[in-house]
Amino acid sequence: MPKLDDNALAALFSLPPKRVIAYLKAKGFTFSWDWQDVWQAAHAQSATVAKVTRLDILQDIYQALNTSLAEGQTGQWFAKELTPVLQAKGWWGQQETTDPVSGEPVTVQLGSPQRLETIYRTNLTTLYNAGRWAEMRENVAARPYWMYVAIRDNRTRKSHLALHGRVFHADDPLWRALYPPNGWRCRCSVIALSARDVKARGLTVETSGDRLRWSLQLVSRKTGEMQPVAQLTLDNHTVFSPDIGWSYNPGEGYRPDLSRYQGPLHPLAVNTLGRPE
Question: What is the dihedral of CA 4, 7, 75, 77, to 10 degrees?
Answer without folding.
Answer: 150
